[in-house]
Amino acid sequence: MSTIKRSNIRWISILTWLSLASAALGQSDAPNGGDADSAFPIPAHRTVHEVLRNGSKVGEVHSTLSQDERGIWFFETDTVATSTLARMLRLSAEESAHFLWREDHVLPLTYRNISRAPLRTRFWQHELHWDEHVSESVTHQGELRIPLEDGLLDPLTLRLQVSAWLHEPERRGQNFEFRVLERDQIETQRVDDLGAETIEVNGQCYETRKLRRFRREGSSRNYLMWLAPAQHWLPVRIELGDEDDDIVLRLIESSLPVADQNCD
After folding, report:
1. Per-residue pLDDT tens for 139-167?
2. Measured between alpha carbons, how far is 99 from 110 in angstroms, rounded to an integer?
3. How many helices (H) and strands (E) in the chain?
4. Residue whose C-alpha is closest to residue 107's, from 121, 97, 96
5. How far is 264 from 259, CA to CA, in rounded Å?
6. So what's the pLDDT on residue 199?
7. Higher pLDDT, 81 or 197
8. 21 by DSSP, 3-state: which?
9. What DSSP line would sit under 27-85, residue for residue?
10. First to last CA, the chain
């Protein structure tokens, strides 16, 4: 049985575990405090970002944020190929996380990351047990247990934490440092606020704050992002890439309302 098939079976068991976890956390103290969810400042929504490689569209990132009847939030992104070559190679990526909102902090419960390419599929998945302070984790290289730290985030909920905090005016202009659970270890990562900037994205003008996420020197997951209050401080533009490729994500669809405005 392949790693992906095993992971799908494990994912079903995680969904069952979430019901027990949400009930337990609602009855006991959770990391970062808070005995009940305050209003999460980012509403449920759907977005689509086009992916440009050196100026040519190669794919789209479809993102959805939702909340179930238990109060558990679910954030998922699905990267799909649109160029002929990328479709032929069956390139794709999926990322998702379940979490709770405790006062002004994201409390991650699960994280899942899958990337598919010819002859190589990379996978990792975390199930965070806050009562035991350990993550039961599975990667394409095997299973492991990782001790947890209070305030810990994953690569996906890190983005939501920054967006949520930017709803508070006093946090704008600050630089943030986070402890982040990556594939098989915990890392210190930074998000630096580079200031306000007005940009145009597909004919729409946005007042934004430009931020830089820094994982480590030379990482392909260092990136710049422009977060707009008109989109609840979610990214309307993201720039990645290295010396060979210029990768840009631009917002093209959103279920969140935006007033028409151009930059003239």
Report:
1. 878 899 999 999 999 999 999 999 999 99
2. 7
3. 3, 14
4. 97
5. 15
6. 96
7. 197
8. helix
9. HS--TT--SS----SS--EEEEEEEEETTEEEEEEEEEEEE-TTS-EEEEEEEEE-SHH
10. 58
